[in-house]
Design a protein that fits this description.
Length: 326
């Protein structure tokens, strides 16, 4: 029997490097494709030490179809390539507001190119990392999957929504299954971006004072990366009559405020620091300041997270502080 092969586009990043461990336990061969713009080979050291032979790492751009073609040929040589996890994207929302090309290339054209090459190689399944950013700003009311109209307020959200649309069209013509996962804020290590990493880094540079973007009232849902991956694997394993499944993944609570996160980070990293808040309820242009998910659909799969938002954030604060030597 041929061994199953998974491609993880963006597999050297935060979530991808965590996902590998779970796929290793399914005895799959894993082909990581990453241009290392934010990911790092060093994030893969622990999974390589578990089983070096189950992973191939290819450095290159997922928006480049010729490069992908070569990568898919190699993946097919290891066995039966039956799925792609598409996690490659620009994960820095403000960077995409400053230069729209960033999200066009890294968030949208990666999806376009991967789908084109999946079609060529007849790969049946895509697992796509979408985002709460596709919804835009609903002012904090619980957002369920069918809510609309979808009016993203960042280029990142716009390019994720456009990617979902392309995947939907691909399902109509050639894909057998697409799992579209709309992530909340995901926390844990190895952190590459996000509010906790930002606060810890700032306190290392300036231990006496933490400057917060916005007035700290922003309220969002956070999920620990381990809970996120377990939810994705549960949905992926479900036998469904439909070809496309679309789920919000998030905690069952209404989230925690940036003010609470700032206080918890200060307490862990630099307890005597003062906290200075900015003005307005947005951290940056394109920031959705109040965000809450309905996760009823995911719960219907029998899933509940092990950690709520506060638990996930506090666990990640400790992990990220240790990651940065604190
Ligand atoms: N972490 C979160 O809170 C969160 C929330 C919503 C959605 N997501 C999505 O989940 C996915 C993974 O996020 P993450 O937190 O692990 O981010 P990350 O930045 O750590 O990982 C993304 C990886 O993709 C790679 N990459 C980017 N552009 C590429 C390109 N053109 N070609 C090849 N590789 C490329 C980066 O080097 C990085 O390793 C992303 O699609 C992100 O948009 C993450």
């Amino acid at each position: 029997l041929k061994i199953k092969v998974s491609i993880i586009a963006g597999g050297a990043g935060f979530i991808g490097s965590n996902l590998i461990r779970y796929l290793q336990s399914e005895k799959r061969h894993i082909v990581v494709i990453d241009n290392m713009c934010r990911g790092s080979k060093s994030f893969l050291n622990s999974v390589l030490s578990l089983d070096r032979h189950s992973i191939s790492i290819l450095e290159g751009d997922c928006a480049d179809q010729d490069f992908l073609h070569g990568a898919f040929i190699l993946a097919n040589e290891f066995g039966d390539l039956d799925e792609v996890w598409h996690l490659a994207a620009n994960s820095d929302i403000p960077a995409g507001i400053a230069d729209a090309n960033v999200d066009l290339k890294d968030t949208f054209l990666t999806t376009f190119a991967l789908l084109e090459v999946m079609k060529r190689f007849k790969v049946s399944t895509i697992n796509f990392a979408s985002s709460s950013a596709i919804y835009g700003d609903f002012g904090g009311v619980p957002i369920y999957e069918e809510i609309g109209p979808l009016l993203p307020i960042s280029n990142y959200g716009a390019m994720k929504l456009a990617s979902e649309a392309l995947i939907s069209a691909a399902v109509e013509s050639y894909l057998e299954r697409a799992n579209i996962f709309r992530f909340p804020n995901v926390v844990g290590i190895p952190a590459t971006h996000g509010v906790i990493l930002d606060f810890v880094r700032k306190l290392i540079v300036k231990p006496e004072c933490l400057m917060v973007l916005g007035d700290g009232s922003q309220q969002k849902a956070y999920l620990h990366v381990s809970d996120l991956i377990e939810a994705m694997l549960l949905v992926r394993s479900a036998r469904l009559s439909k070809k496309i499944e679309l789920v919000n993944i998030g905690p069952i609570d209404h989230g925690v405020s940036v003010r609470s996160i700032a206080e918890w980070v200060v307490e862990r990293v630099s307890p005597t620091a003062s906290i200075q808040y900015g003005e307005g309820n947005k951290g940056w242009v394109g920031d959705v300041s109040k965000f809450s998910y309905s996760t009823k659909r995911l719960q219907s799969y029998g899933w509940t997270p092990k950690l709520d938002s506060a638990g996930a954030v506090n666990k990640a604060i400790n992990e990220i502080a240790l990651q940065l030597g604190q």
